[in-house]
């Protein structure tokens, strides 16, 4: 065991030494759902739900861009790469425009469309067309002009009846005219006309709903909403149908001398005479079932965007196997729950509504992140377990994982392979019965291991809602109808087990229920001054901190039970609000906030996630808010926080939002049992390094003194958890000089000491 710990410590030190100058935030985004694609002569650019990546077809180099780099967490709806300006332009459903400078990676946001005095639901950006230094941006209300040289917005064209808004899906320049495919026909106007803001300057060529219009070679083509491809006839000034697609077109483009049309299940490649030279079908992708979203060509390679599997490539000239060119990431961005250990992170995607309704059922599988990257286990490999809502790792065996399905039971995974699905046929689990005897619906959610290695399991909406899978493989059930007002109507959220072995269960209708099998006693904390003082009975999350306090997050605020030992000593347990001073006035911390997740770090700080207000980091007693992260002041892709978990060894705080997973590389690690693994990083501290020096592997409340080589004290502190930081100043007054500095570490009782050194180079 010691050898394994030493190996991991060395691995961690190597990773830290290579990542000294990386930012505090890290992104873990899914790139599987491709929203748009573009290309240069050598590089393909792809947009997923809210992140970008590019692949150089010559070097095979993959590059990613996400909220950590400055992108928005909102949903991307259009993508275009300007070869002339070497900028990638991103359009969003809410009207946001972003320019990514590929030369230096800088990101610039434009909110001009968002701030237009128009209904918010019609600001979506649908398409970009570059022409003589201008972008013509197709939106749900019309066309907006953008100057790529000055990076300033120009005119807005409303071309609906009497100058009203109309949805423009795509534009094209042909024979001196701009053509717009709209939901109300194809409109055209002279591109040199300086008065295109006048709707009277636009002529309707043909009526109907038109999705695509594109200039290809010496011709102009358009596709309507049912998949009819039309060719423009200059003589008749009209569009004439030439072929029918079996499905509506999702994407069209002209590149490398080819006209490419993408539908859900096919990519059609036409030559410059509109002869079909290649048809790629989605059922040719043998690895999995996919649907196409877009496609382009570079050289002899076809790049295909899919909804489920990212970007696939296949040769144009021959029928061959498909290769996946997608950056590693989780299966989906909307991670519902997860758990971290020192070496891995397991994530699940199945969810339920505010009132614990799992329908429509999800078929997403689950994922694992480790030093090897992401491992995505698909639905087909989890015995068809639906709506997997939580995951628990055996603390005594990290290779054994249990995933809770809020419909199918309990999934056991060993060595990354699903091995058994516990349900009503092979375990003590039970299906709800009010829907009929023949309907199977086993809603397992919260699970937790006790000190003896037994797995405690909650099952919603049945009498025997609390169960335990013992180490000998036997199941035992505990009836809940004596403590719950209505067991068959109640749902369970999280479960935690304190140092006394008491189980604390979050419920939807009865607040927090506590149980200890040593005396077979149940108690609960609910609403009312005499029955627990919770602000709401629907409790979403609970956590026991390092001082044995129970933190309770509800739909309408936060409460704290001062001591979990009160379960044994008091009759009615009563939780308390945290009162803080804000602008001189007494306020309740997180008053009326929907609290979704609480995680306790190594320094006993609380990371608190909310349904719509981002993440709060508060001090151990809650009196100080150290950080409040939102989409406006951090890389959070969404203010909707699903879950928070912490790697206790590294201090990395993982935050799962509705739009993606990111982490904050904190320093509050869990305290160690001794000082044998104490270490310093970075070491040496080089002139270009601007961060702090971390001393990790500490005992809680260890005393740390730092002196120069002559013995002069320059810093002293007491550890709260397993790590402290030093800003390389002499008590905050001035930066210390180049030299070797001694670090003296001693346990609180003085029984154990350690001496380390750090070299600082100015």
TrEMBL record:
Quick check: keyword Protein biosynthesis in the entry? no
Alphabetical keyword list: Signal
Q: Domain (PorZ N-terminal beta-propeller): give its ranges.
A: 44-203
- Keyword rRNA-binding in the entry? The reply is no
The stretch of residues making up the signal peptide is 1-19
Recorded protein name is: T9SS type A sorting domain-containing protein
